[in-house]
Automatic annotation (TrEMBL):
Topological relation to the membrane, as annotated: Multi-pass membrane protein
Biological process, per Gene Ontology: phospholipid biosynthetic process
Name of encoding gene: dgkA
MF-aspect GO terms: ATP binding; di-trans, poly-cis-undecaprenol kinase activity; metal ion binding
Annotated protein name in UniProt: Undecaprenol kinase
A family per Pfam: DAGK_prokar
Keywords for the protein's UniProt record, in alphabetical order: ATP-binding, Cell membrane, Kinase, Lipid biosynthesis, Lipid metabolism, Magnesium, Membrane, Metal-binding, Nucleotide-binding, Phospholipid biosynthesis, Phospholipid metabolism, Transferase, Transmembrane, Transmembrane helix
Any coiled-coil regions, as ranges: none
UniProt-listed Enzyme Commission number(s): 2.7.1.66
Organism: Alienimonas californiensis
């Protein structure tokens, strides 16, 4: 349902697939997989709660209300915060092996 109805969830799904592929290609170790899996799960959980909250708001108060606006904005902010944290986990987990792979490829090219 999330992927079908929420454009952001489709982006999260694409990011999860890309990160999983990168982790496999870069041979991330068990600790790295733990961090990546926790980050991906946290983003999906936040997205699911945000969607549930938006649907509830729309049922309880379909008309415009500044408090509904603020409540929805706060819930969307939570998704953004978790997504930024997940991006940082991705950079710190995939960055070093990616850097090592790029350096190796460059050294092999210059030989
Ligand atoms: N009933 C409402 N009253 C006031 N503002 C609202 C109301 N419904 C939505 N908004 C505003 O519009 C924004 C988008 O709300 P909507 O329910 O369309 O979520 P969405 O487009 O699925 O967003 P998201 O990207 O957070 O999933 C909210 O963050 C809020 O600022």
């Amino acid at each position: 349902m999330l992927v079908r109805t929420q454009p952001n969830a489709r982006l999260h799904a694409l990011a999860a697939v890309l990160v999983t592929f990168a982790g496999w290609a870069l041979e991330v170790d068990a600790a790295g997989w733990r961090h990546l899996a926790a980050a991906i799960a946290a983003v999906w959980a936040a997205e699911a709660f945000n969607t549930a909250f938006e649907l509830l708001c729309d049922v309880v108060h379909p008309d415009y209300h500044p408090m509904v606006r603020d409540a929805k904005d706060a819930a969307a902010g939570a998704v953004l915060a978790v997504s930024l944290g997940a991006a940082a986990v991705g950079v710190f987990t995939l960055g070093p092996p990616l850097w090592a792979w790029l350096s190796e490829a460059q050294a092999a090219n210059s030989r």
